[in-house]
Amino acid sequence: MDDHHHDRNFDALVIGGGIAGLQAALDLGDQGFTVAVIERDASVGGKMIRLSKVFPTLDCASCITTPKMAAAAHHDRITLFTYCDLKSLQRQNGRVHAKVVQRPRYVNADKCIGCRQCEYACPVMVPDPEQGGFSATKAIAIPFSNAIPQVAVLDPRHCMLCGRCERACPTGAVDYFQQPQPFSLTAGTAVVTTGFEMTAIADKPQYGFGKVPNLIDALQMERLLAPHGPYNRVLRPSDGKAPDSIAYIQCAGSRDKSMGLPYCSRVCCMYAIKQAMLLSGALPLADITIYYMDIRAFGKGYEQFFQNAQAMGINFVKAKVAAVEAGPDGAVRLHYEAQDGEGVTTADHDLAVLSLGLVPAWDPSGICPLTTGADRFIHTPRPKLGPVQTGLAGIFVAGAAAGPKDIVDTIAEAGNAAMAAGQYLTAMSPSAASRAAVA
Amino acid sequence: MTTASRPKGDKILVLATESCAYPGADSVGQAHSSYPANVYILRVKAPALFPERFYLDCFDKGIGGIIVMSCGEECPYEGAYHALAKRLDRVYQEMKARDIDIRRLRLTAICTVCNRAFLNEVNQMNAVVSELSD
Amino acid sequence: MTQANEKPDAPAAKIGVYICHCGGNISDHMDVEAVRRRAENLPGVTVARTNMFMCSDPGQEQIAEDLKNGTVNRVVVASCAPSLHEATFRGAIRRAGANPYIYEHANIREQVSWVHHGEAATEKAAVLVAAATAKAGRLKPLTPIRVPATRHATVIGAGVAGLSAARDLAARGIAVTLVEKSDALGGQLAALDRIAPTGDRAADLVNELAAAVLGHPGITVLTRTEVIATDGYIGNFKLTLRRRPPEGASTADARYVPFQGVRPPEPSDAPSGELTVETGAIILATGFRSYQPRPGEYGFGEFSPVITLPALVRKMAERPAKGRLLQIDGRPIRSVAMIHCVGSRQIPGIHPEDESGHLNEYCSRVCCTATLDAADRIRRNHPGTRVYELYRDIRTYGRGQEELYEQAARDGVVFLRFEADNAPQVTTAAPGEGFALKVKVADTLTFGETLEVPADLVVLATGMEPNDVSDLVEMMKLPVGMDRFLLEVHPKLRPVEMPVGGIFVAGTCQAPFDVTEACNTAGAAAVKAAALLADGQVELDPFVAEVDVDRCRGTGACVDACLNPGALALVEMEVGGRTVQRAQVTPALCLGCGACVAVCPENAIDVCGMTLGQYEAMVDAILET
Fold this sequence. Notes:
The complex is a heterotrimer.
Chain A: E1 9-15, H1 19-30, E2 35-38, E3 53-54, E4 59-60, H2 61-74, E5 78-81, E6 84-92, E7 95-102, H3 117-121, E8 125-127, E9 136-138, E10 140-141, E11 153-154, H4 164-168, E12 181-192, E13 196-198, E14 215-217, H5 218-225, E15 245-252, H6 268-282, E16 287-292, H7 302-311, E17 315-318, E18 321-326, E19 332-337, E20 344-349, E21 351-356, E22 358-360, E23 395-397, H8 407-428, H9 430-438
Parallel strand pairs in A: 1-2, 1-12, 2-5, 12-23, 14-21, 15-16, 15-21, 16-17
Antiparallel strand pairs in A: 3-4, 6-7, 7-12, 8-9, 10-11, 13-22, 18-19, 19-20
Helix pairs in contact in A: 1-2, 1-8, 5-6, 6-7, 8-9
Chain B: E1 12-17, H1 21-30, E2 39-44, H2 52-61, E3 65-70, H3 80-97, E4 105-109, H4 115-133
Parallel strand pairs in B: 1-2, 1-3, 3-4
Helix pairs in contact in B: 1-4, 2-3
Chain C: E1 15-20, H1 32-40, E2 45-51, H2 57-68, E3 74-79, H3 82-95, E4 103-107, H4 109-113, H5 118-136, E5 145-148, E6 152-156, H6 160-171, E7 175-179, E8 194-195, E9 200-201, H7 202-214, E10 219-222, E11 225-233, E12 236-243, E13 255-257, E14 261-263, E15 273-279, E16 281-284, E17 288-290, E18 306-308, H8 309-318, E19 326-328, E20 331-333, E21 335-342, H9 367-381, E22 386-391, H10 401-410, E23 414-417, E24 425-428, E25 437-443, E26 449-455, E27 457-462, E28 464-466, H11 470-476, E29 503-505, H12 515-533, E30 537-540, E31 545-547, H13 557-561, E32 568-575, E33 578-585, H14 595-599, E34 605-607, H15 612-624
Helix pairs in contact in C: 1-5, 2-3, 5-15, 6-7, 6-12, 9-10
């Protein structure tokens, strides 16, 4: 791994270093091709490294993601470029050209040894986005414990330039004057693995997000459940009480035309069931209710997982929650139409979780002439036999960039994208292929 | 080598095959089930590796019980299970000759998801070992 | 009581012990510092450290530093199950310039902190660390075995996954033999009409893939062929195939047969009988079969208007007609009831097991969308035919599928939802009622009201079952899950790999998939095979038997006990001026099972990396700690 590699020509570019990008990069690198991974965040690992455990095996997410992150970082033929914005991705003369700007970390990545002395010295506490905003980090910090690379990042919005980090740093890596670094990369092919973000629920006033204190989103719950989470146990944010009753609101930002999101986000049923199972382990006495429209447990072992959750006593209520508001004593009040004939019903829960849907994390417009579908995910013109093909020859797509997808399906698709990209390189440049063959 | 020595300890040794029983034991852990802490699991490719005297030496040294957790009929090494079963028969004979309770040695098949079977086996062996040490 | 031939290592072992907190997964349940202190005092241990995440970069870096500066020359990591991170730490050691086989793993999460707590956990972790340390002191550096690999792959099954994998591998310059049991290419895809939600014609997809495969000079297509024996190992498999002779005359051209697939050209000199193929990797793409309802299940086999969804699709495609009413077998259909989850999502205690004692507890993934597509097609082409969908959950999860669900509702498909323990009942209608059948259902969408749906046709949305590949499972030692599908090593870490090196899975032999997903798994399997065969040689683990020729007396006991013919043999060699017989191992064939170790009267053979002496030392450590 080397952010300042001098060879800026590669066989393949991978845009996005989440689980899809890492798998695609590894499968390309293992075939003998050289790969550059361009990642927007300060660490690779994507959404997966931020999760607690993953369904249906309940493996800890970090345990599955870290080996792939480390394998990519240490791979002879893979170069990771983190904290980078992609400004342009174009095809010219049979090559793919990328213009990239590395944002300033205000820390020299070559000098930083990840010792965290700067973090300990920094007097400024800021809400930690990596912990769902529930706990604090410093204005200069390693992004999270298992981040790759282990390089500190200074947040200029909160830094007060007191100079303590600079003095604390044993290697003189802090650089308040660091500038954005533009650079160019060229390659024979590219794989777009830009992933997803969660639905912006501010678009949905009925869920009153931001105003209802104990209504959190599922990624925040992932942090509460994570072994290295903000409180080391599950507490509700408003008053630190251990919740006795927890609600999951399914299809919050999916299958919802009022938000312009008519599609199914494919993972929310399973992650809600998974979180409910983990919660029933963490809070054995709590009542957990999942309000759902259809339970979509379609993958290998998923239905059995769902059946186990029912056997564990998790309540499944078929109902679309119409509105959420703050109730008494920090409760979250749900209004829903029950299917048992009682009409519009209300229920109070100590804590409620919005099972938010998935929206694309990247809009190619103005950067790359890739087309998107009505759902704004990358358009795949041949979804049956060529699910990783885009409208542009030589540019492939995998994972949630081409529509919501769980981790298992994402990893398979990333492998397929690496296969398609490898084939394209073989066809375009037999020399690259033969170099790969003897690598 | 001493004879007629009765194991005194309560430590239970599990010889678990790397393709079936060892991941099965991990699966018990993933389910956060609990079992006696005197159970020590050694990962083996195939228990066919161990000669008769290995088992007898273990008892001599003070191991209270041994469970051989094989893959059973799913064994990836064709014929290994058969060879193992025959060998353990000879170990049983030798245990009788040395006045070691033969319940201290069990051969069983555990798969990667056999959580309940795994727990049964270790709990039963634990009961045998504590009964015999009374 | 360590075995006498266990030679102490020349330079004394300097063991580093590294104990992981696993972010609380371990450290919340035991006193990690106490484990570290006890490890520090063990014989041979030069350093004992802890880390929040040993698998993280800083954790690995710690090991590398200690190796590089000579503090340690043997490594023990106490962390999660070795299946997760043994390879990670071996990799870290290799990158530090050391031999990766000086490593031993102590499993103190899955086998300690997640099953025991408090002092008992601390004690057991300390004992396991001591045992691992005792073994580490006796580890020798090993060299991986490199064997030449045949740049050829064999794909078994020519459905969409097999065709796709064969095409992909050939495009990467790897020769492929594609083996298919039936006489046509296309598998279950060929049995379909249009593929929802895009409306692609199955025939077009089959033709496109078959043309690519038949047109590629690097692909040998063998239909009517079965694998009857396998031999060899990763990179160097030898398959024995049996090919049935063609039934018809020889033909020069490929031919598409509706609902069967593409029959390849049949030259007069085509091979038949027994063939052998030398191949470096195997991709299993043996696919699924459609669930066949039990006699009487929802009236199937009892009432002729009860048919399966595949039968409906075929009947509609073979006689495409518009008109107010759908016609099936010459009968006008005024009302269709389509029942979901037939042979899928079965629940113990509610659904009866099949004759072999199995339940299909899984969701078959594709039936909801396929049923909705058929329903909507009926509503659009035959507006007089009413369509009822009786479902448990509608699982239109994929891109464009939810839109199809909405469209079907807009087009007047009526949805009724039932609970698994209160399934619809199909009975004949009374003579005066005008319809052939009626379906009684307690509809939870209308508060559990019992409704009677009149039906001229009942369609059962049957799920997927894996094809019976018990012969291949037996021959290749493949693991099968509780659901009877082939079981991958790990769904996320190694999702297309079988535990036997060089064997991969693609498509619906692993789990139900739609066409898109089957293609993705095929590409994922092909890319693994391509990476494996990229440079014409395969690197294998060195955990194989090794003979100590100084001790060997040539008794041949090991050769008799050996489970893999060819791996061990007695050979003549010169020792001290005399020609004697001694055992010799062929490493690439050795399974490393150790059956030879147990029988050697001279203790002259052992398995590298897991010697009897190492196990004995671990037992001693367990007893003495």
